[in-house]
UniProtKB/TrEMBL annotation:
Belongs to the enoyl-CoA hydratase/isomerase family. It comes from the Bacteria. InterPro entries: ClpP/crotonase-like_dom_sf, Enoyl-CoA_hydra/iso. It comes from Nocardia callitridis. This is Enoyl-CoA hydratase family protein. Keywords: Lipid metabolism, Lyase.
Length: 254
């Protein structure tokens, strides 16, 4: 359990996220993702990083139970710092990052995928930000890198999900494949990149980041300010408590 980094073949480093059963990532896990991706990019032998996950879905976002189990706001601050570090590490990685998504990609998962260079998804993958249903904000910066502006707003306000096939239509998901073929499809693209001259690939990553119209670090940090505000006002606690009550009621019914 945790974050594993290994070299697959020449020039390819694979970073695997594994927090069973649903990949709700604790604070330490976000920082571990950041460290693994950053170190992979610093390795002069690495030309491309594949970011993948075990378990039913790619990412269920932050571990809400961890935040609720600790008094005060420090746990929330730590989680937000961890997400900022992980999202930033993917974007700033010295080489391209390929995100491979199966099942669900929610909350913080959108931050990772939105900042990746290439996204490959299984045909059962869905993407979404349930933040407004949890009394929080954030990662609209990264969702806006996956869909057009008005669709991003509709998805964000309604906390709806979008399928891998729909994202493929918008061009943000490069390939949609059967789940059993996901790792092989990602490695095939990675091998194509790894066959290039690493010096050129690293220069290309810097160049493409340099012409990006949006400063993803500043934009996401701005969003985080409103999450802190909602928590300080007690709004987030109220909504999460309501959500927990509804969840408990549904379990009782079944």
């Amino acid at each position: 359990m945790g974050i594993n980094r290994h070299s697959e073949t020449a020039g390819i480093t694979v970073v695997t996220v594994d927090y069973p059963p649903v990949n709700a990532i604790p604070t330490d896990g976000w920082f571990a993702i950041a460290d693994a991706v950053t170190e992979a990019g610093r390795d002069p032998e690495t030309k491309v990083v594949v970011l993948r996950a075990e378990n039913r879905g790619f990412n269920a976002g932050v571990d809400i139970k961890e935040i609720q189990s600790k008094p005060g706001h420090q746990a929330l601050i730590d989680a937000n710092h961890g997400c900022f570090a992980a999202f930033g590490a993917v974007y700033d990685c010295q080489v391209p990052v390929i995100a491979t998504v199966q099942g669900y990609c929610l909350g913080g998962g959108i931050g990772l995928v939105g900042n990746a260079d290439i996204v490959i998804a299984s045909d059962d993958a869905t993407f979404g930000l349930p933040e407004v249903d949890r009394g929080a904000l954030g990662a609209a910066t990264h969702l806006a890198r996956l869909v057009p502006q008005h669709l991003m707003r509709a998805l964000f306000y309604t906390a709806s999900t979008i399928t891998a096939q729909q994202l493929h239509h918008h061009g943000s998901v490069y390939q949609v494949v059967a789940r059993a073929e996901l790792d092989a499809a990602a490695l095939k693209v990675a091998e194509n990149i790894a066959a290039k001259d690493g010096r050129v690939i690293r220069a290309a990553k810097r160049a493409l980041n340099g012409i990006d119209p949006q400063d993803v670090h500043r934009s996401y940090r701005y969003e985080q300010g409103f999450t802190f505000e909602l928590n300080l006002a007690g709004v987030a606690d109220e909504i999460r408590a309501r959500f927990d009550d509804d969840l408990a009621a549904r379990k009782t019914e079944h």
